[in-house]
Design goal:
It is a single chain. With 153 residues, this protein is of the alpha+beta class. It has one domain. Helix content is 45%, strand content 17%. Strands 1-2-5 form a 3-stranded antiparallel β-sheet. A two-stranded antiparallel sheet has the order 3-4. α2 packs antiparallel against α3 (62-74). It starts with a helix and ends with a strand.
């Protein structure tokens, strides 16, 4: 009977040894999931902005470019509300069509009929909530995210 009582503390000691490892795994998975979520949000934002940009005439006035950048950052053309991803700013969004980037986006057709547009989000840095888990990766920059679409004029 006495040996049974001696075993009670063993489970508590084993739990105390494994708890830090389990917490590192749980927080690591959580931060990896957050990073993927933010990346997916940026991809969708660039795609939505490119879709809207493809409906516009080439050589947009600055007001239209601001609307497209606001759509990529805030999810609306007015630029109201919070950014779709923490730390995302309109300065990170660049726009290209055949008038602004003639080297890479050539006009197609006589009028031109087809307008190729690209929206790129670059310089976004992911910030970890629990930097002790990700060690040297408490913040890291995503590679530029771009979306290219054709707009028929």
């Amino acid at each position: 009977m006495k040996s049974h009582f001696r075993q009670w503390g063993v489970a508590a000691v084993e739990f105390a040894i494994l708890l830090p490892v389990l917490l590192l795994i749980v927080f690591g998975i959580t931060e990896f999931g957050r990073a993927l979520y933010n990346y997916n949000t940026l991809v969708k934002a660039a795609r939505d902005a490119a879709r809207y940009y493809a409906t516009q005439q080439p050589g947009n006035p600055p007001a239209k470019e601001t609307e497209i950048q606001n759509l990529a950052v805030f999810g609306n053309t007015a630029g109201t509300g919070n950014p779709l991803a923490p730390g995302l700013a309109t300065t990170m969004v660049t726009l290209c069509d055949w008038t602004s980037c003639p080297a890479t986006h050539q006009a197609q057709g006589a009028a031109p009929v087809v307008n190729l547009v690209t929206v790129t989000i670059s310089g976004y840095t992911f910030q970890s909530f629990v930097p002790f888990v990700t060690a040297n990766l408490s913040s890291f920059a995503f590679a530029p995210i771009s979306s290219t679409m054709k707009g028929i004029l």
